[in-house]
């Protein structure tokens, strides 16, 4: 997990600095930024989650404690009376299970971060639908994901580099996609 954290740190920091992400914490921009954020996340998750889950065995998904989140995004968009956008087009990033496990690391890390963002946004506007950002609170925690990751690596010797490359590729695609959202 530390190797993944280190390998994706620059992408994580760059994503947090995107104008859209910065506007989520600003009361004056929240009304316009949050719908754009939800739409962008929906496009990402609706395209990416099925690919990641399809590459992983049910045993791996259960061990990692991952569950789809795009339906929570759809519910938040519906609450705001916004039609879900079409899924993004994902380049051929997810070629095998270790790559998908790296991608799941990115999405589960975003789930953990979403809980922090949800608290900040709730303080700015208690009326916002936050199912997506808060969905991690009802799911297995980050620690379980870390244990599942450690067990996966132990059971698949030599897969670490592929997992890291998968995490970096997925994170870079997410960053590029979010960077195109006009502030």
List keywords for this structure.
globular, mainly alpha, Heme Oxygenase, Chain A, 183 residues
**Structure class:** mainly alpha
The number of strands is 0
Residues in β-strands, percent: under 5%
Distance between the termini: 32 Å
On the 0 to 100 scale, the average pLDDT is 91
Radius of gyration: 16 Å
Order of helices and strands: HHHHHHHHH
- Fourth CATH level, the homologous superfamily: Heme oxygenase-like
Task: Give the number of helices.
Answer: 9
Task: Assign the CATH architecture.
Answer: Up-down Bundle
The helicity comes to over 70%
How many discrete structural domains?
1
Would you give the CATH topology? Heme Oxygenase, Chain A
Largest sheet descriptor: none
Structure, explained:
This protein has 183 residues and is an all-alpha fold. The chain has a single domain (2-179), classed as Heme oxygenase-like (Heme Oxygenase, Chain A, Up-down Bundle), CATH 1.20.910.10. It is built from nine helices and no strands. Helix 1 packs parallel to helix 9 (160-179), helix 3 (27-55) runs antiparallel to helix 5 (70-79) and helix 3 (27-55) runs antiparallel to helix 6 (97-124). It starts with a helix and ends with a helix. The mean pLDDT is 91.
How are the SSEs placed, and which strands pair?
Elements: H1 2-16, H2 19-24, H3 27-55, H4 58-64, H5 70-79, H6 97-124, H7 131-134, H8 142-155, H9 160-179
Short description:
With 183 residues, the chain is mainly alpha-helical.
């Amino acid at each position: 997990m530390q190797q993944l954290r280190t390998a994706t740190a620059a992408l994580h920091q760059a994503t947090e600095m995107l104008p859209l992400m910065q506007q989520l914490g600003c009361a004056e921009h929240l009304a316009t930024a949050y719908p754009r954020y939800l739409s962008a996340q929906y496009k990402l998750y609706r395209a990416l989650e099925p690919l990641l889950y399809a590459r992983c065995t049910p045993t791996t998904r259960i061990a990692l404690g991952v569950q789809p989140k795009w339906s929570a995004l759809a519910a938040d968009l519906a609450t705001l009376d916004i039609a879900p956008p079409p899924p993004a087009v994902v380049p051929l990033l997810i070629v095998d299970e270790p790559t998908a496990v790296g991608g799941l690391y990115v999405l589960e890390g975003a789930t953990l971060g979403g809980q922090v963002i949800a608290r900040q946004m709730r303080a700015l506007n208690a009326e916002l639908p936050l199912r997506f950002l808060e969905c991690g609170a009802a799911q297995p925690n980050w620690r379980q994901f870390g244990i599942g990751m450690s067990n996966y690596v132990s059971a698949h010797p030599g897969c670490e580099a592929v997992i890291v490359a998968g995490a970096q590729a997925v994170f870079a695609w997410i960053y590029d996609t979010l960077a195109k959202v006009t502030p």
